[in-house]
Design a protein that fits this description.
This protein folds into 2 domains: 197 residues, Isopropylmalate Dehydrogenase; 126 residues, 3-Layer(aba) Sandwich (Isopropylmalate Dehydrogenase). Helix content is 41%, strand content 22%. The chain is built from 12 helices and 14 strands. The strands form 3 sheets. Strands 2-1-3-12-11-4-5-10-8-9 form a 10-stranded mixed beta sheet, sandwiched between helices. The chain has a two-stranded antiparallel ribbon with strand order 6-7. Strand 6 and strand 7 form a beta hairpin. Helix 10 runs antiparallel to helix 11 and helix 11 crosses helix 12. The two termini are 20 Å apart. The structure holds nicotinamide-adenine-dinucleotide. Nicotinamide-adenine-dinucleotide (NAD) binds next to helix 4. One of its GO terms (biological process) is L-leucine biosynthetic process.
Length: 354
């Protein structure tokens, strides 16, 4: 299995190193072979080549089976013109790989309950919600315009979805739900939006082929409230781009710890892009302080969704949980009575538990 490793900027390099450590251990245990190749993206790529996404990076990613990315960006490149900014490289990479589905789990480890803003009785034994967000359609990509009118300006953005855009992401979420709690909540605004009504029709029709998966429907305003009131009712939340953008940030904050959360972006092909949800954290870069768990959990998602290695994915997730149980914490999730460890040691501890 060929994996392109993109360290990117800031803590990116430190955290992806730990993912490789964990994968080496998985390779030993499962007698399989991962071939790693590094590529440049973002600020590091601008410094080396003047381009946030060099052709070579695109080529390497497209000829691999999966891509693991750290993070891009940092103050050094903040004043670059738009087309030469690190984020441009990341958006272009997603487009090049055709990844239309963003899978963002909001997992709250029971050991870290005190980091959540929610009450103990709401959280129970922890949270495990998967948000499946449509990534390359809807209002962010539809026709938009600004027009001068007599008394000022007029602006509009268009939410635009067609049958196939919806079918392909709905299919992904049914597949994801089958690997989890077998329950999908389609979040929309079908009481007012025509696009939402199309989503509902298509998902309802498709549910005939996935009778083992329960499908519910919820308006987005209610979903925003229910995520805080009773988050445990959700398994997979399927939603369009803008609603997903907002709800996935809300859900991740329920878990209280940015450094812990993974994400996967997948498309029709098999090349998935796996990255933690956090940024390059320039304030702690190069100090062995970054929490590598978000990246390590993204690696578990890669094994599950790109390589169909469910047991190995579970091994990684269990190893993270065991290390938490033993009281090891990086600085961002440190609590009284626990033992603080650096990035390298956290990576080694997790690898050793596999
Ligand atoms: P950030 O996620 O980098 O950091 C926010 C805060 O969380 C910081 O205090 C940081 O130290 C802390 N933090 C983040 N990840 C952590 C980890 N793994 N372990 C411990 N602490 C962690 O967000 P920001 O400060 O808004 O952005 C910094 C740079 O990252 C910017 O250039 C931004 O554009 C970029 N960024 C990139 C991505 C990406 O590559 N996908 C995502 C978000 C932000």
């Amino acid at each position: 299995m060929k994996i392109t490793i993109i360290p990117g900027d800031g803590i990116g390099r430190e955290v992806v190193k730990q993912a490789v450590k964990v994968l080496d251990r998985i390779a030993d245990k499962y007698k399989c072979n991962f071939e790693f190749e590094e590529a440049l993206l973002g600020g590091a790529a601008i410094d080396a080549t003047g381009n946030p996404i060099p052709e070579e990076t695109i080529h390497k990613c497209k000829s691999s089976d999966a891509v693991i990315l750290g993070a891009v960006g940092g103050p050094k490149w903040d004043n670059q013109p738009g087309h030469l900014r690190p984020e441009k490289g990341l958006l272009a990479l997603r487009k090049e790989l055709g990844v239309f589905a963003n899978l963002r789990p909001a997992i709250l480890f029971p050991q870290l309950k005190s980091a959540s803003t929610l009450k103990d009785e709401v959280l129970g034994d922890g949270l495990d919600i998967m948000i499946v967000r449509e990534l390359i359609g809807g209002a962010y990509f539809g026709e938009k315009k600004r027009i001068n009118i007599e008394d000022g300006q007029r602006a509009y953005d268009t939410i635009d979805y067609c049958t196939n855009d919806i079918k392909r992401i709905a299919k992904k979420s049914f597949e994801v739900a089958r690997k989890r709690g077998k329950k999908i909540t389609l979040v929309d605004k079908a009481n007012v939006l025509e696009t939402s009504r199309l989503w509902r029709e298509i998902v309802t029709n498709m549910s005939e082929d996935y009778k083992d998966v329960e499908v519910n429907y919820m308006y987005v305003d209610n979903a925003a409230m229910q995520l805080i009131r009773n988050p445990k009712q959700f398994d997979v939340i399927l939603t369009e781009n803008m609603f997903g953008d907002i709800l996935s940030d809300e859900a991740s904050m329920l878990t209280g710890s940015l450094g812990m959360l993974p994400s996967a972006s997948v498309g029709e092909g098999n090349i998935g892009l796996y990255e933690p949800i956090h940024g390059s954290a320039p304030d702690i870069a190069g100090q062995d302080k970054a929490n590598p768990i978000g990246t390590i959990m993204s690696t578990a998602m890669m094994l599950r969704y790109s390589f169909d290695m469910e047991d190995a994915a579970k091994d990684i997730e269990n190893a993270v949980s065991k290390v938490m149980d033993k009281g090891y914490r990086t600085g961002d999730i440190m609590e009284n009575g626990m033992e603080i460890v650096g990035t390298e040691e956290m990576g080694a501890l997790i690898a050793a538990e596999i």
